[in-house]
Design brief:
globular, 36% helix, seven-stranded mixed beta sheet, 7 strands, Nucleoside Triphosphate Pyrophosphohydrolase, alpha+beta, 184 residues
C-alpha cells in the first residue's frame, strides 16, 4: 500500500461494554493517564486479529478483569488526527476480582450505574453510544444467555478472519490502486 493509502485507511479498534454485578449492574469506565479522560475500554486491533478477540484482550488490559463475551452491540466511527477510527463493541460480563494489572496508559477503573457512567465519560460520541446501548446491555444481562465466550482447546482464542476488516482493506486497496493509475 502506498503512503497515501496508509493515511486514508481507517484505524480499526474494538472494545467492550463491560458490566459487573447481578442485582445492581455497574459499567466499566477507564481513566486514561495522558489525556486524563474517562472513556469506554477499547483499543486497536493487532494485524489479522478478529475484533471480538481484540475487544476481550483490550478489556483485560484496561480493566484488569477477565470477561465473558456475549453479543455484539454495535460500532461507532469518529475522526482522529485526520483519519477515521471505527470501533466495534461487544457486551461483556466481568466476575470476581481483577486478574491482571492495568496497562500503563490507564490510571484507574470505575464501576458505575448506567446514568453515572454516561455522565463520567468525557467524549460526546461515547456518551451518545452508551446512552443507546446501555439499556440494551442491561436487558440482555437480565435474560439467560445462550451466547458464551468460547475459549479454544489451547486456552486462547486464535485470531479469526474478519469479513469487516477484509472488506475495508479491499475498499481502500481499490481506492489506492485507482489513485496510483490516475497519477501515472
Amino acid at each position: 500500500m502506498t503512503d497515501s493509502g496508509k493515511r486514508r485507511a481507517p484505524i480499526l479498534a474494538a472494545g467492550g461494554i463491560v458490566l459487573r454485578g447481578k442485582t445492581k449492574p455497574r459499567f466499566a469506565v477507564v481513566r486514561l493517564r495522558r489525556e486524563k479522560a474517562w472513556v469506554l475500554p477499547k483499543g486497536k486491533l493487532l494485524p489479522r486479529e478478529h475484533p471480538r478477540d481484540a475487544a476481550k484482550r483490550e478489556v483485560l488490559e484496561e480493566t484488569g478483569y477477565d470477561v465473558s463475551v456475549h453479543r455484539f452491540l454495535g460500532s461507532m466511527s469518529y475522526a482522529v488526527e485526520g483519519r477515521i477510527k471505527i470501533v466495534q463493541y461487544w457486551l461483556m460480563r466481568a466476575a470476581g476480582s481483577p486478574v491482571h494489572e492495568l496497562m500503563d496508559d490507564v490510571k484507574a477503573v470505575k464501576w458505575l450505574p448506567l446514568r453515572k457512567a454516561i455522565d463520567a465519560l468525557n467524549r460526546p460520541h461515547e456518551k451518545v453510544f452508551l446512552t443507546h446501548v446501555g439499556p440494551i446491555a442491561l436487558a440482555a444481562m437480565r435474560k439467560p444467555s445462550r451466547e458464551k465466550s468460547k475459549p479454544s482447546a489451547r486456552g486462547y482464542n486464535k485470531p479469526r478472519k474478519n469479513a469487516f476488516t477484509k472488506a475495508v482493506g479491499r475498499f481502500f486497496g481499490r481506492a489506492t490502486q485507482a489513485s496510483v493509475r490516475h497519477a501515472g
